């Protein structure tokens, strides 16, 4: 049997992927799964998670930084991440709480780096500064053809009676989103020890089960705690 300290070790899990792949829904569902095992978990997002990071999020997604270029946006995301890590991620993990984040540093590498053309040297330097050694224990990369993803988003909006306007990144053309998808696939392939690539082109319940199975496979203590 695992020792108590092993059983209670806090984990940091991030979700990544293109627009409309269902990250937010699956973050909520994973949180519920963990809480059903009596694991205290914190749900957060990037950019965001703290008041200052949320202010940066609003500034960027409104398109107010677009004219500054991808390099400036990468710096803004890193500033938000630095605050997020120091004020929420690090204290939560230290308190024994799992942290589940809708996006983290891989999004900057995919959006501004691999898709936006920002030099890898800058992206890596910003990661070193903002992460402060808080690399996720596991990253779930949800993959879907962006054309299918946007069709789903439009269908959900129609069913809910909403009008889609698109934020800073959602309004990019489909070719841009296909390059973004390739970026996330490249990140997943380059980091197999951390990233788990899962097709998001399946029913929500089936996707939830696939993610939960992957999480349990990565953290065997979940089985031990459940059986204890």
Automatic annotation (TrEMBL):
Query: Per the record's keyword annotation, is Transferase included, yes or no?
Result: yes
Asked if the record carries the keyword Nucleotide-binding, the reply is: yes
What the entry lists under SUPFAM superfamilies is as follows: P-loop containing nucleoside triphosphate hydrolases (SSF52540)
Q: What does this protein do?
A: Phosphorylation of dTMP to form dTDP in both de novo and salvage pathways of dTTP synthesis.
From the UniProt record, list the reaction(s) this protein catalyses.
dTMP + ATP = dTDP + ADP
Gene3D superfamilies documented for this protein: P-loop containing nucleotide triphosphate hydrolases
Q: Which keywords belong to this entry?
A: ATP-binding, Kinase, Nucleotide biosynthesis, Nucleotide-binding, Transferase
- Return the similarity comment: Belongs to the thymidylate kinase family.
InterPro entries per UniProt: P-loop_NTPase (IPR027417), Thymidylate_kin-like_dom (IPR039430), Thymidylate_kin_CS (IPR018095), Thymidylate_kinase (IPR018094)
Identify this protein by name. Answer: Thymidylate kinase
So where does ATP get bound?
Answer: 17-24
Thymidylate kinase-like domain segment(s): 15-208
Question: What gene does the UniProt entry assign to this protein?
Answer: tmk
Q: Name one GO molecular function term.
A: dTMP kinase activity
Enzyme Commission identifier(s): 2.7.4.9
List the source organism. Devosia rhodophyticola
């Amino acid at each position: 049997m695992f020792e108590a300290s092993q059983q209670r070790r806090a984990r940091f899990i991030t979700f990544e992927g293109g627009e409309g792949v269902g990250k937010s829904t699956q973050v909520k569902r994973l949180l519920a799964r963990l809480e059903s095992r009596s694991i205290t978990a914190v749900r957060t997002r990037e950019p965001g998670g703290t008041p200052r990071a949320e202010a940066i999020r609003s500034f960027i997604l409104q398109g107010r930084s677009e004219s500054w270029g991808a390099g400036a946006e990468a710096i803004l995301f890193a500033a938000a991440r630095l605050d997020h890590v120091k004020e929420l991620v690090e204290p939560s993990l230290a308190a024994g709480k799992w942290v589940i984040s809708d996006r983290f540093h891989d999004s900057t590498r995919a959006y501004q780096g691999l898709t936006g053309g920002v030099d890898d040297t800058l992206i890596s330097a910003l990661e070193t500064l903002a992460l402060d050694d808080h690399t996720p224990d596991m990253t779930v990369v949800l993959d879907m053809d962006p054309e299918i993803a946007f069709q789903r988003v439009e269908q959900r909006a129609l069913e809910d009676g909403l009008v889609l306007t698109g934020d800073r990144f959602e309004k990019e053309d489909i070719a841009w989103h296909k390059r973004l998808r390739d970026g996330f696939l490249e990140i997943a392939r380059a980091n197999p020890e951390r990233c788990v690539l899962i097709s998001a082109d399946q029913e929500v319940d089936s996707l939830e089960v696939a993610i939960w199975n992957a999480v349990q496979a990565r953290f065997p203590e979940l089985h031990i705690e459940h059986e204890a």
